[in-house]
Amino acid sequence: MTPTPHRYAVLQAGARMHYAVPALLAQAGALAAFYTDLHSNHRLLRWLERLWPPSLQPKPLRRLLGRRLPQALPRRLVRDQPLASTTWARQSERSDALVFERACRERFGGADAVYTNFINNDLEVIRQAKQQGLHVVHEVIISADVGRVMLEERRRHPGIEPDGEAEAVVEAGIARDREKWALSNQVLVPSAYCWESSVALGCDPAKLALVPYGIPEHWFELKPDPVPGRILFVGQVGLRKGSHVLAAACQQLRLHHQSFECRVAGPCQVDITGPLFAGPTYLGQVPRSQIQEEFRRADLFVLPTLAEGMAVVHLEAMACGVPVITTPHCGSVVRNGVDGFIVPIRNAELLAARMEQLLNDRNLRDQMAHSARARARDYTWKRYGERLSTTLNLKSPAP
Predict the structure, then answer these.
(1) The pLDDT value given to residue 102
(2) When comparing pLDDT for 51 and 315, which is higher?
(3) What span, in angstroms and rounded, lies between the C-alpha atoms of 320 and 373?
(4) Does residue 51 lie within any of the structural domains?
(5) Helix (H, G, I), strand (E, B) or coil at 208
(6) Domain for residue 397, yes or no?
(7) Which residue, among 18, 23, 2, has the nearest Cα to 388 in the 3D structure?
(8) What was the pLDDT predicted at 106?
(9) With 90 as the cut, is the pLDDT of residue 87 above it?
(10) By residue range, what is the domain housing residue 343?
(11) Which of 1, 133, 312, 362 is buried most deeply by CB count within 10 Å?
(12) Three-state SS for 122?
C-alpha cells in the first residue's frame, strides 16, 4: 500500500535555491507552513526597490531584494518575521532561533511532518517535532565532515583565516549531527560525497536518500563563446574552496610558460595580496547579471574545493558547455575523463597538469565541453523537483 503523503512545515533561512523546496511542496498540496526569516515581497521592500536605483543599493539590500517568493508559494502559508530578522541580521544564530521558536510555538502550523536544512543548530526543534509525533526530514546541505576538514586546513595554513571552531566544538557539532540523524525519518543528501561522509560519521544508510540539485533551464539558452586559455573559478575566495590550491596550480603553469588567464569571481574572506593566493585575477563579487557572461566566455571551469554539499556552480559551467576540473569533495556529477577531470583535494600538481592538458588539447577540450552540456541536462530544476517528489512521495501537481 502506498503511504499517505505528509503535510510539511518547512524551516529554512534565506532564499535557498530560490525557495524550491517549499514551492514544490505547495504545488503538490503538501505544504502546511513555511517558516523563514525574511523575504522581499513585503510592500516596504518593493517600494524601496522601485525608488532606489540598483547601482546605488548597498550589497546587503540587493541580496535581500533578491529573496522574492515564487508565485507557486502562497503568501498565506509563509510565516516570516521581518522586524526581528532585521534586528538580528548580523547574528544568524539568533535569527535562526526565532524561526525555530515560532514554528514550535505554533505547533508547526498543523503539519504532520517537518523539513529542515539548517547546518548544525536545528537539533532542538527536531527534538520537539519528534515529541509531537511528527515525521522528520532533514537535508544535509554540506558534507558532515566539513568541520574536521577545515580544522586540518587551518592548521596547515595558520593565520590565513580566523581560527574558527576548536576541535572540541567541531566534535560536539558532529555529535549533534548524529543525534539529528537518529531522530530523523529521512536524511536527504545531494551527492555521493555527502552520503559517504554522513555514513562514515554514523548516519544509518537506510535513512539516506540521494537527491541531487538542479539549475534553471534558462542556463541552456546561453550560447558558449569561450576565450581560449580563459580559466574560471566562481565562489567565495578562501581555504574551503581551495583558492590557495588554484593559485599554486596557476604558479606552476607560469613556470611551464603556459599561456592562460585565470579569473576568480566571488567575495574574498582572505587577504589575496599574500603569496599564498598569487596567480589568478580576482574580480571580486560579480553581479548575477554578469556572471552568466563569465561562464559563457570561459574555456575551463576549475573548482578545487575541499568540502561542499553539491556545488551548483559546476552545473552552471557544464550547462554553458565548459569542461570542469574539480575534486571528489565538490559533490559533482562530472565523469572523470568525460566531462572534465576529478583530482584529489590539495593536489596542485595534478590540478595544474589537468589544466595544462585541456588548455593544449583543443579536441579533448571540445569533446568534454559537448559531454558536459549534455550531462547537465539531467540536472535541471525540473529533474530536481521530480527526484524530490519521488523521495517524499508527493502527489504530482495539477497541470
Answers:
(1) 94
(2) 315
(3) 6
(4) yes
(5) strand
(6) no
(7) 23
(8) 96
(9) no
(10) 217-376
(11) 312
(12) coil
Residue 79 has phi, psi (to 5 degrees) of -120, 85
3-state helix, strand, coil in the chain (%, to 5): 45, 15, 40
> The domain spanning residue 340 has which CATH number?
3.40.50.2000
Phi, psi of 386 (to 5 degrees): -65, -45
Average pLDDT over residues 373-391: 95
162-215 pLDDT, tens per residue?
A: 877 889 999 999 999 999 999 999 999 999 999 999 999 999 999 999 999 999
Contact 67, 15 (CB under 8 A): yes
Greater pLDDT, 94 or 131 = 131
**Both 365 and 255 in a single domain?**
yes
Please count the CA atoms within 13 angstroms of the CA of 56 that sit on its side-chain side. 6
- Taking residues 107-132, report their average pLDDT: 95
Torsion of CA 387, 208, 27, 314, to 10 degrees: -50
Report the DSSP beta bridge partners of residue 11.
35, 116
The residue type found at 341 is: F
Residue given cell 554578469 in the structure block? 290
Backbone torsions φ then ψ of 264, nearest 5 degrees: -115, 115
Measured CA to CA, the distance from residue 64 to residue 343 in angstroms comes to 36
Sign of CA dihedral 34, 36, 40, 43: positive
Determine the Cα–Cα distance for residues 392 and 10; give it in Å rounded to an integer.
13
Maximum Cα–Cα distance across the chain: 66
Choose the weakest-confidence range: 36-40, 230-234, 393-397: 393-397
For residues 331 and 381, the answer to whether their CB atoms sit within 8 Å is no
Residue 3 domain flag: no
- Grid coordinates belonging to 192: 555521493
